[in-house]
Amino acid sequence: MIYLYVKTHQTTGLKYLGKTVSKNPHAYKGSGIVWKAHCKKYGYHYDTEIIFQSDNKDEIREKGIHYSQLWNVVESKEWANLKQEECDGGYCANSFTPEANAKRSAKLKGRVITLEHRKKLSEANKGKNWLSVEARKVAADKIRGRKRPQEVTNRAVQTRLKNLVRKEKPIKLPKPVIICPHCGKQGKHTGNMLKYHFDNCEIVVGPRYRKCDQPRRLADKTKKPTSWIITSPNNIQYTVTNMRQFCREHNLNNGSISDVAAGYRKQHKGWTAIAQYDDTYS
User: 251 Cβ partners below 8 Å, 6+ apart?
Assistant: First the structure.
């Protein structure tokens, strides 16, 4: 819907004739150069009167020319219009037609922005927060209700569909089963098959150390060691009665040294240990 309106400033009484496609024409501030400068100076305090509305651009143009000539909005000092309202300024329903695009392109050809103009634009935009909630709301109100040509919509849909097409993932083939030529063990080409078979097979390098295969030295679980003889990597022997304190002082793990003393491990960080028992202690 296109609205033809008249805005009257509450302080100065200056009037402005214009049109808008905004859903809320009363909140629309107007786009005239003189009108915007006037409101910027005296404040945006105005009354809005809708004098005609239609979804036909030709009807709006006809009414705009009629009221412009009736009230003499161009020459009268009571109005802020620089030209009669012909529905050719700003956004209209047909603003994106090839004719409109060619007209805008012809106006912009050869345009040169001087350093003075750039400086004025920089000073005008200083201090503005374009990411604030108010700024985003104003920007959204300006473009709300616009209708794009069907060609632009179809092009955007095709671009989105093209971006949404997922690439086909390659099919993951199962890893082949391999067989150790020495012991005949079958398994996948990973993990323990590579670690303990082929060149590292027990048949080639001999039996490997297993904690579960080591016999427990203590036949009677009720017996506890009274002391330990611990040998350092430098062949220094210690007779220890407090295993926890000794491990803290030498940065050792108490459980690992206990496993070495019990026969579950050969060494811990190069340290070896032998547990001593008192037959009278149980």
Answer: none
Distance between CA atoms of residues 19 and 57, nearest Å: 10
Domains in the chain, CATH or no CATH each? 2-95 (3.40.1440.10), 175-208 (no CATH), 227-276 (1.10.10.10)
Return the beta strands (E) in the chain as ranges. Answer: 2-9, 15-20, 46-54, 177-179, 186-188, 227-231, 237-240, 272-276
158 vs 98, 141, 146, 163, 193, CA distance in Å?
A: 21, 27, 21, 9, 52
Report the pLDDT averaged over residues 50-71.
Answer: 88
Q: Is the pTM of this model over 0.85?
A: no
Q: What is the pLDDT of residues 107-125, one digit of tens each?
A: 888 888 889 989 988 888 8
Copy the structure tokens of residue 218: 């203590």
Q: Is 194 left (phi over 0), alpha (psi -120 to 50) or beta?
A: alpha
